[in-house]
Amino acid sequence: MNNWFHSWRAAIRIARRDAWRYKGRSFLVLAMIALPILGVSAADLTLRSSELSTEEKLDRMMGAADARFNDAGAGGVPILQSPDGEMHTPAKDYGDTVWPSGSTDVTKTLPAGATVLTDSSGSAKLTTTHGLLQTEVRELKAADPMARGILTLLEGRFPEKADEVAATTHFLESSGLSVGSTLSARGYDRTYRIVGSYELPNDLKADQVNALPGAFLAPYAKVAEKAGMARGGVSTVHLVKAPGGFTWNTVQQINTKGVVVTSRAVLMNPPADSEVPLYQKDGWANFESSAGAQAAELAAVGTVVGLAMLEICLLAGPAFAVGARRSRRQLGLVGANGGDRRHIRAIVLGGGLVIGVAAAVTGTVLALILTFLLQPVLEDAFGQRFGSFDVRPLELLAIALLAVLTGLLAAIVPAVTASRQTVLASLTGRRGVRRSSRVLPLIGLTALLLGAAIALYGSVVSDQFAIVAGGSALAELGVVAMTPALVGLFGRAGRWLPLSPRLALRDAVRNRGRTAPAVAAVLAAVAGTVAVSTYAASTEAQERAEYRASLPHGAVAALVVEEGGRDVPAVRDAVQRHLPVDTRADVDRVQVGRAGCSPHEESPGCGTYEIVIPRANECPLWSGSDRGEDPAAKFTKEQRRKLADDWRCKQNDEGGIYVDGGLMVGDATILKVLGIKDPGAEKALAEGKVISFAKAQVDQNGKVGVKLITDTVKANQALQEGKPAPGEMKALPAYLVPDEEKSYGVQALLSPAAAKAAGLTTVPMGSLFSTDTMPSTEQRQKLDGEISKIGSDVELRVEDGFVNDSSIVLLSLAVFAGLVTIGAAGIATGLAQADAEADLKTLSAVGAPPRVRRTLSGFQCGVVAAMGVVLGSAAGVLPAIGLRLTEERQQLRFYQQALDEGWGAMSSPPYVPVVVPWETLVGLLVVVPIGAALLAALVTRSRGALARRAAI
Fold first, then answer.
1. For the chain, how big is the Rg over CA atoms in Å?
2. What are the residue ranges of helices labelled H in 209-290?
3. Cβ(786)–Cβ(132) below 8 Å
4. Of 389, 520, 606, 820, which cross-links 483 as Cys (Cβ 3.0–4.6 Å)?
5. How far apart, in whole angstroms, are the C-alpha atoms of residue 941 and residue 551?
């Protein structure tokens, strides 16, 4: 035991001295190991720090209160809720009958003697230095001790008077205001002074102002209602503090009155699932990650970590081999002085241990420092404040041990190789004859065939991505194991090459022990890059084929549906001033009720409308049942598949412009902007007819029915009962546009004069624009800034056509693979130069010009890079093809299932192409090897150091 300790102590001291002597190589290996450790440790620290404890979550949710009460919206009927209050439903199952809805008085459920604080939220367009900004208004007495923790005060104070507010820092930055400024709301003559700034710990990017309860929302709602503007909804929760808190039994008692309770005591000590009645109902179980899902997640993480360690070992292994080769005389002296093979192995392994420990310490310390210093930046990126700087020593230690293990694994093969050399060979520098293993290629071939079979099964028989990925990973490991044998096959091409590349290829094949790891490292990196690139290029081709333009190329849509189109003129003017507009087509929409009502608003005085599909034109798969039953259930699978091709069931999947109710009001310029050239459409529009793009809308008399619904409450009740909504019907003559015309989502078009003649009230909605040239980025930015000053919720859309978002990903992957390739090839070249020093001296002695050294070095690097890139490209394409075939089977199964269930008309047969990214492959196969060769040639000296010729 004592001898073992002293021998390892001496070995580590020698290894530490060598690492310090060859700082460049040591730093290279240390960086390769430390950088992943730095990234993983920083990710662990960030993740743990961003995870809030239950106490921290409660403080941000309810401050110092014991519970938070809010209305379930079920009309006061008994409800069941989850312990955290996120899920709730009426205790009674109402089936196909009308489900209860409506508010209840939460204050009646508050216990006697409780302290209550109301927290109400609404929204309003507030005045800023730039114009108007849609902002959340929160009425909460933030200075109350019970609210401590909900808002974090940064400057000034919270409001204490009715004409004071505080604002979030993000709102102040967006609005250009500051503490001491005043603000108001649109159409509101009352002003408020900003007395403080704060932030929401859970949402740092929120635009919010804080006022005292009753100081803003109620008076603003009265002004908005009087002006005919839309009234924003107000939600109120009650923060309650009571002696003894609220147990789970107390929460369930309050649930019987239709109120949801989020209790601090319950969340700190949650009940078992068996004690939660909600979880006993069908479809309301506690959906947490299953053991199988967690095992699969751990397996995926383990696979990624394992492959990353393999890549690092393949890259760092040759570097340790370089050190062992250059220290062979020192190792020979150890053997000459009585050291045996285990001492030689201990010295080389000690180098891996020293570098691994240094990398672990460096990566962990840098992760701690950088994460701590960059915590504010990380919090801004996450959009929330961390609870605390949470350091888990055991997790960091486990990550650090990975660095030590990686260093030891990378040094194993060089250690075994160095220990097998005789003392005489080490002292004289002779390498002897080396024979490659015949077992490893056979194991690799077995793994390759088995992995390929698994991947083939997963892509052809099964539709599980995990099977394909697992098989592909096994096959790639098999190719890595076969690398020495594959390198030997490359050597047969040397007879057709000139002198320098022939010498480089012969040297690489002869010394497979140093060539194979470098080639395998390049292979693994390139294979992953090619696989991801092929998958991304194939996905891009699929998305391009499935893309549906919302407008003609270069056209612009600017639509506003709030406040009766009050800001439409300003929006139209802004678009025309900032974009190269050719034609402007104004668009109106049908309005039922008050002019300020938004579509589908259910406030008093607001209504809606719909285009009624004639009974004969309704799809049998979706209609025909008034009892809540599935209409498709009465048909067989064969009948459902046949009905999927029925014109009544075909859906207009063009997307694009959406108009509530389906009827757009405008003149013939809309047809021009949309590129509709049917002369009959323009003529019919001039005659006062509805231009219909959906055959199902037109009845047998050639008319389209429009139903005006003024009572939305009765309409919703009728909808729940499966009955038609009550309303006034208007039949308008129609013209059906031929199918070949593309409407870009427009269902029906009516001229303003015809709408007025039919008794339909219209309000401005916006405009469609055609452009002379594609709007530039600068023009769009200026337009966005102008619209933000208007303060309206504008749906602004510029049709750019299909935009490829994966190009930057492909470029990044190619750069990554290129860097790994150059690094691995450079390491192999350095090892080759250390091995071939005697041969280079011989070439110089027989009269070879100095440039031969530089040329040979370049070709040695290029040969390693080329072999790795060729093998990696071949190994990377196959997994991507397997995954795409699996996706095709999966999507085809979903499509066939949709046909069988009667929903096939809403989808189209899947198109899952396989596209090879030739640009990426050409860059890897040609540019990267040539670049690696040129770089190696440039950094290599033409003349070596003077030394005497070794005796033979």
1. 37
2. 217-226, 248-255, 264-268
3. no
4. 520
5. 62
Mean pLDDT calculated for residue range 301-316: 62
Q: Is 458 within 8 Å of 467 (Cβ atoms)? A: yes
Rounded to 5, what percent of the chain is helix, strand, coil? 55, 15, 30
- pLDDT tens for residues 839-860? 666 666 766 676 777 777 777 7
Q: Are 695 and 647 in contact (CB under 8 A)?
A: yes
Query: Helix or strand or coil: residue 122?
Result: strand
Place of tokens 């009460």: 69
What pLDDT shows up at residue 807? 62
Residue 585 tokens, joined: 């087509």
The helix or strand, by DSSP H or E, that contains position 557, with its residue range, turns out to be strand 556-559
SS3 692: strand
Query: In terms of Cα–Cα distance, which of 235, 43, 40, 42 is closest to 121?
Result: 235
CA–CA separation, 173 vs 152, rounded Å? 17
The arrangement of strands across the sheet holding 663-665 comes to 608-612, 703-709, 728-736, 690-692, 748-750, 663-665, 581-590, 762-771, 556-559, 795-798
Helix-helix angle 512-546:291-326, to 10 degrees: 140
Handedness of CA 645, 651, 653, 654 (dihedral sign): positive
Ordered DSSP codes for 189-216: ---EEEEEEEEBTTBTT--EEEE-TTSS
Task: Give the separation between CA 468 and CA 461, rounded to whole angstroms.
Answer: 11
- Local structure of 182: helix, strand or coil: strand
Please give the Cα distance from 734 to 747 (Å, whole number): 12
Q: What is the mean pLDDT of residues 489-514?
A: 74
Phi and psi torsions of 156, nearest 5°? 70, -135
d(CA 26, CA 579): 58
Sign of CA dihedral 699, 700, 702, 703: negative
In residues, how long is the chain?
Answer: 952
Contact 545, 908 (CB under 8 A): no
Tens-digit pLDDT profile for residues 278-297: 888 877 766 554 555 555 55
Residues 750-808 have pLDDT tens digits of: 999 998 998 888 889 999 999 988 888 888 878 887 887 777 778 888 888 887 766 66
Instruction: State how far the Cα of 515 lies from the Cα of 505, in Å rounded to an integer.
Output: 10
Longest dimension (CA), the chain: 111
Q: Which residues, 6 or more positions from 439, have their beta carbon under 8 angstroms from its beta carbon?
A: none
User: Which pTM does this prediction carry?
Assistant: 0.71
Residue given tokens 């407008």 in the structure block: 551
Residues 527, 817: contact at Cβ < 8 Å? no
Give which of 544, 547, 558 is closest to 770, Cα–Cα: 558
Q: Are 123 and 276 in contact (CB under 8 A)?
A: no
Short-list 762, 765, 744, 743, CA closest to 753: 762
Rounded Cα distance between 869 and 920, Å, is 12
CA–CA gap between residue 610 and residue 603 (Å, rounded) = 18
Sign of CA dihedral 775, 780, 782, 783: positive
Paired tokens of 251: 């929460």
In the DSSP assignment, the letter for residue 924 is I
Within its chain, how far is the Cα of 743 from the centroid?
32
CA 105, CA 70: separation in Å to the nearest integer?
A: 10
Alpha carbons 909 and 51: distance in angstroms, whole number:
43
Nearest to 198, CA basis, from 165, 239, 231: 165
3-state SS, residue 168? strand
Give the pair of three-digit tokens for residue 774: 């594609």
CA separation (Å) from 342 to 2, 8, 331, 603? Answer: 15, 10, 12, 86
Nearest to 358 by CA among 45, 17, 16, 21: 16
CB 935 within 8 A of CB 861: yes
Residue 690 in contact with residue 715, Cβ under 8 Å? no
Hunting for tokens 């950094």 — which residue is that? Answer: 939
Question: DSSP state, 926?
Answer: I
